[in-house]
Amino acid sequence: MRQPSVIARRVAVASVSLAVAAGAVACGPEDNDAKAAGNDSTPHKGGTLTVLNSNAQQDFDPARLYTSGGGNIPSLVFRTLTTRNRENGEAGAKVVPDLATDTGRPNKDATVWTFTLKEGLKYEDGTKITSADVKYGIERSFAPELSGGAPYLRDWLVGAADYQGPYKDKKGLSAIETPDERTIVFHLNKPEGEFPYLATQTQFTPVPKAKDTGTKYEQHPVSSGPYKVVSNENDGERLVLERNPHWSAATDAERKAYPDKIDVRSGLDSSVINQRLSASQGADAAAVTTDTNLGPAELAKVSGDKELAARVGTGHFGYTNYIAFNPKVKPFDDPKVRQAISYAIDRSSVVNAAGGSALAEPATTFLPDQKSFGHTPYDHFPAGESGDPAKAKELLKEAGHGDGLTVTLTHSNAKDFETSPEIATAIQDALKKAGITVRLQGLEDNDYSDKIHDVKTEPGFFLAHWGADWPSGGPFLAPIFDGRQIVKDGANFNNGLLDDASVNAEIDAINKLTDLDAAAKRWGALDSKIGEKALTVPLFHPVYKRLYGKDVKNVVISDWTGVLDVSQIAVK
């Protein structure tokens, strides 16, 4: 997942990003008192679920959304070839069939993937969903006026690099074949064992060509899921969904669709959302949020109230906050300087600055602490919880900085508890003990994002974060460390400008694997290998704490999204 500050559309992370990240990690809601409370009775159909959010559900068009696993609210309307498993914790990080009968059938080298649609699939108007509709839905996502979705298809599909969508090119993509109305075949440029994960993105939503209204389609997209759009006001600020009468649970093992109606209200201040969920009065008793966390002060208050504490959902998402180095900038071209900073970091103070141990978990690996990512524990520069300034001074002396060092740390001024002044100050204080004077350069969020993602302006020492497009090491390591993904004239995410032939080759080798468990182990080993280069200093993984209304039942929080899944909630 691209960083939330760069692409705020990622609703899943809340974050990814974010998320939610939405859009962000240790075995899901294991300490979740809310899980037990939310499942204390048999869920029933009926009622209205209210969703209280800060950010509007903008661009409600499957072509324009950038949502892993199909998204949260979008997944109620848009079904895809595959989707995320709707279960708590680790089990929820698996990819499962959705419109398709399975998660795809690869050829020998994973360059061709074939899917078969289930029988009996229908749109909200009762017409049949066909493979041609899936193909058309993907093709329209290439139209410049519908940009915003995941970029992988342009890179992965044969001949898709310069395709401009069906409005300009009526021939369509020859890389996608539909030999019959239930079969769809994808031809890829190179082996991609994780194609089933990509097929969870909303670009794989079927769109009937006859009902496509271009940029106006987001006002009333044709539903393939359990709910249809009856109202979309102010570009997703108020979104009202009601049941799709032609959706059949017999074809959908993932979405429970308990409420009769979903009322999404956005543009609210985060403190107001938490106040309303806490009071849980009227319609708010059956309300949730998909993008607003409890802050440190709010969490302290909630923790002291037994009833409120029982209504807090705890989740983890594949997301890492870290220090990034640009080794092209002195003195960070010297590995010993980077290693010295790695030893000097006081992760306990950083965690406190991020809101405390309830909201952040210390990290020494770049990959999040989840099995699906292939997490392999390592700590190449062990400094305990509070840092090792003596070891840092020793390395600085070896690097020719025995009298100390002065550096500049670039961060965002956004109050996000991630790349913000609180985190920067904690790092400044820790490095001072090692003889490193840190000058802080705080930038407004857009300026910060532009600066750190341009190879021409990228600073030598700055705060960054990254979240996964799906729960695997691939979309976590490749964008950050694959030398072929260095972008010289655009948004670049390979901050360390690493272009190591052995790393690139291992990424290619893992991508060929269709055994995702085997691939995960290789990603973990690669993470450890890259970690030795000290191109980043992992700091912490965020923990999501979110309130929900007193009448909300059947709370499910998977390690794919880290937030409660609205497709599982009952309110009656």
TrEMBL record:
Q: Can you say what this protein is called?
A: ABC transporter substrate-binding protein
Q: Keywords assigned by UniProt?
A: Signal
Q: Bias category Basic and acidic residues: which stretches?
A: 209-219
Q: Where is this region: Disordered?
A: 209-230
**A Pfam cross-reference name:** SBP_bac_5
Gene3D superfamilies xrefs: Dipeptide-binding Protein, Domain 3 (3.10.105.10), Periplasmic binding protein-like II (3.40.190.10)
- Which segment of the chain is annotated as a signal peptide? 1-26
- The Solute-binding protein family domain is annotated at 94-484
Q: Which InterPro entries match?
A: Peptide/Ni-bd (IPR030678), SBP_5 (IPR039424), SBP_5_dom (IPR000914)
